[in-house]
Fold each of these.
Amino acid sequence: MLQKLADQSINRGIVLSGIDLGLADQIRGQIEGYIASGHMKECNTQICVPWARVREYALKAKAESTQRAYASDWADFAGWCQGQGRTALPAEVETVALYVTALAGERKVATIQRRIAAISQAHQFARHESPTGHVVVRTVMAGIRRAKGTAQVGKRPILTEDLRALIAQIPEEGAGQRDRALLLLGFAGGFRRSELVGLNLADLNFTRDGLVVTLRRSKTDQEGQGREVGIPYGSNPATCPVRAVRAWVEALGEEGGPLFRPINRHGQVLNRRLTDKSVALVVKRWAAVAGIESGGVAGHSLRAGLATSAAAAGVPERAIMAQTGHRSLTTLRKYIRSGSLFLENAAARVGL
């Protein structure tokens, strides 16, 4: 019986895909109830004992944000199928082709491609052949990409001069002290929002040369190999990231816990981690105060700003990649092209 339940959960792709965790919990409940009922003697302990761990490790194979995205994408596809009287799992090639065509009218290409990935994952874990790789689906997607284009609209980078303008508006105490440290560290380290809010006090090491930040995990390091990022002292004390972070750490007066934390309306620092969305709100808030159009900026503007500013200053690609942790030169060069448009510009040397 236990083996049958285990096979059922795997065959349907429930435990490993993360798409229908409610049913996974229901099946696990049946297994746990079976064990608790005194039938342990009938149970193969090699299956019973590690089963919870199988589920736990399987779910850790992908980041929580990816699991949420896949769950949302699968729910959308399943809901569409239900409304059209079609089967979602296993889905026919025609069903997927019609679905992506319906999405093309209102969704971006990147969103459609992510939906296809979720559909593919669900079928693979359920041990069904995925219809997403069929030539019909691939041809329809090629047509959608050509019709809609694949260029992504990036966030406006916060450049060095922009950052100076922001910092000049921020007070040096309370929430302002935290925001100064967050903005300056985010820019100097080229950090992602998730990396910034994931930092703990224990990840900081102040040295004679500056600040060494240890990233335990990141978007491109899901297995937690970690890397160290050097943050040098700034030439201007008002915009020095090392001094700003040290001032915030001293204000916290603690040795452990999250580095960046929420502050309530009474000015009290809460003992929990700031969310990644809060980083975007901080950037937008101070950009607006500094007179910078806040509609095009977000948390990613700090990371994009460092890469763009460094490229404009003639910093080599390898040095920029070492700081930002970019693994793709293609992605990095989007910033470099923007930052170096007028460096060694051909039109600037022809005497116009």
Note: Residues 1-31, 38-43 have pLDDT under 50 and may be disordered.
Amino acid sequence: MNRLPTFISAAMRLRLLLLALACAPLTQAADIERGKQLHDERCLLCHGLENYQAAASKIKSLDGLREMVRRWEDKLKDPFTALEREDVVAYLNVSFYKFPEQKKVSLRTQQTSAASATLRERR
């Protein structure tokens, strides 16, 4: 099997390092501060915090909360990205609903894993 010349191998290692550094924030848990900021900028334009007290009896799980955020974001001019949605859900859960965290691979981790798989395929 032919090996790549050292300078190409070093360049590839540098690219992989830069990609890993760029993806590092994606492996973190949902950003509650960012979720609050997104919520305050977009959701509070239409309703106040009192909605969460009444809705708490209807929403029974973290997945139910995710579904509620997804359903209502259709009303926004600028819908959330998947990562932003997870941040908003995390903020609402910590601040109002208090559902136990599910043992589930986060969207950020899934994206990082997908990027790693793509790099392995390219080798």
Note: Residues 6-23 form the longest helix (18 residues).
Amino acid sequence: MATVSNVLFRDDDLKELYDPGNGRPSLPPSILSGVLLLQFHDDVSDEEAVQRLQFDLRWQVALHLPTDYPGFDPTSLGNFRARLAEHGQEATLRPFRRGGPGGWFHPRPVTLLTDTTRTTGAGAVQDTYTLLRKCMRKLLKQLGYAAAGKRRGLAPGTERLLATYLDQDRKAKIDWSDPHQRAEQLKVLFQDAEAVLDLAAEQADDGAVQAIGWLLVKIMGDDIEQDEHGNPQIAQGTAPDRIISITDPEMRHGHKSQAQRFNGFKVSVTTEPNQRDDRGRPGHHGGGSDGQELMPTIERVEQHTGVTVEQMLGDGAYGSGANRAACAAHNVDLLAPVRQPADPVVDKSAFQIDLAQQTATCPQGTRLSANLAPASTGTHTAIHLCAGDV
């Protein structure tokens, strides 16, 4: 490293991270960059890295430092990382651009292991009634109705909305164990939400208003459906991307298995076998299969590190047909177990399903047509036993 450190780490490469006319002289970013690389190689803490910089001759030779180098406060390394992150990956990777053709580091094909882990969201999980109420409150605040000057000369209906959702923040005083009272309260919330959206239409050009309005519309669409009389009711089932918290709108219901469920996010973690380093992706929605993050992970690793991924190792969640086809098109060898059905005879894969014709053919050749009832009255399930099924 001593033979190339003066070329790899140059202050001019990172000069845009600093303001030359403001503040006291900074530590040379060339030295800090070298320390971060040696720290990563030796897998030591910030405090240990600074101590090695002062007392380890190998580190001093690698960075061309004198043997009496005084060091610096370990927090400077954390501040430098934050500065790099603030200015994005472009500034971080520029000193290593010489790793291209003919450079110091050569892109190499790698084999990666990938999986996801769960992380808890920052907000409390809220029911539909609370989601609607708090989202209306948030939208009314964004519209400016918290200011006294905005509340002059309002229509009675608007004044009632403000008194109900802005001047207070609590659930309605009803008997929540009574289904009829809950249904009436849902009807009130739904109608009030539509009224608040009408108010928001007056400021439709405001980006923040649009974002909160979209959130309210999504909650109404995911959680509520109409009964046979046109009245709102709680929808059956759970929408795949259902919002569960106004405090943290990005968190979702998630699961690693049928037994391991959580509310929050999934974080993709990718590493080389037998290596300490890992490449994590910021939390994404907890819902959905782990496998849907496979191709974004490959693309992210190749873009940010300059390596070529030639093989990916994952569990059964990554072994879908879509992932295998995408990896083949990307010249990546995907090693993941194929899901084995508990009972192959009656597994979905044993049936020929024609969605266009709404038909299904069982393994014994019997063909059934779907008999779908209107959504408001539910659906009918046809049950047929074929020879050999039981």
Note: The radius of gyration is 29 Å.
Amino acid sequence: MNPNGKKQMSCWAIAGIVAASVVVFFVIILAAILYPVFAKAREKAHQRICTRNLQQLGSAVRMYAQDYDGKLPPKEVWCDALGRYVTRNVEFRCGGAREQRCGYAYNSTMPSMLANVKSPNDTVMIFDAKGDWNTVGNSSIADLRHAGGLNVVFVDGHVRWLSDYPTQAPGR
């Protein structure tokens, strides 16, 4: 007790409070540093899931064309037409657009026959888009949801990340 009759805090109690404050401070700083790292990792995981889904959808389109003598799925019902060629309907959902039933769109400039695509390695077939089931469109509905770009599957089946949707439909 001090001369005024009040209890006095010991040096050890003050040191404990200071040490706890320092630890809390460092935890907050560490969380602030690591949060963007974890957010980027989560985005990369969404982008990989999207890439895998687009590869599956590209394969489904080619299987459909093989079964229907080179005809591509009808644009207005492309998701419905591919239903039997995908293992689960999750292939229609992009990891970055979980609220949508289908986070992709079918290129509106695709011909009805696979043989009519002049440059399969340059022609966009399915891409990240704003829309829903059986969405068909072009750059106006493209969704740059993956690190400021979009994933695209081309007619030949390869998937690429692009910083923007191609302004013209190459290969047509």
Note: The chain has a mean pLDDT of 83.
